[in-house]
Amino acid sequence: AGSAPPPSAAAAAAGGSRVRVTPLERIPYVHGGYAPAAPLMLHDGRWMDILRRLMPEAYAGAAALLRHAVESAPGASPEELALDQARVMKWAENNPVVAAYGMMSSEGGQGQ
User: How buried is residue 50: exposed, middle or buried, by Cβ count under 10 Å (0-12/13-18/19+)?
Assistant: First the structure.
């Protein structure tokens, strides 16, 4: 691990040079991998404000998800709300603010 892979057969046949690939453990972004953190982010006022400022349309989608949960459970506290996990995951997939939240909430981001 950590060394560049051999050139592809096509690149070798065309006389191409090697391409250095960064090992996965050094790449901080996970394509859609932080979508499972979205339900936590939806309850974090600081991150919802960041979402509202940077991505107003995505914020509107998040607000709709929260409204749906509130309407489905009248009188429930925020901790008791049952978010539709499939809808939340679909909304959160590839959202850069959700990815930032996941990164900053992980050990790599020191849980900020």
Answer: middle
- DSSP string over 30-65: -TTTTGGGHHHHTT-HHHHHHHHHH-HHHHHHHHHH
Q: Which CA distances in Å does 37 have to 26, 62, 68, 99?
A: 21, 13, 19, 9
pTM value is 0.65
Helix 56-72 to helix 45-54 angle (10° resolution) is 140
Q: What is the CA radius of gyration of the chain?
A: 20
As a whole number, the mean pLDDT across the chain is 79
CA dihedral 70→85→94→109, nearest 10 degrees, is 90
Q: How far apart are CA 106 and CA 20, in angstroms?
A: 28
Q: Are 97 and 54 in contact (CB under 8 A)?
A: yes
**What size, in residues, is the chain?**
112
Interatomic CA distance for residues 84 and 31, integer angstroms: 22
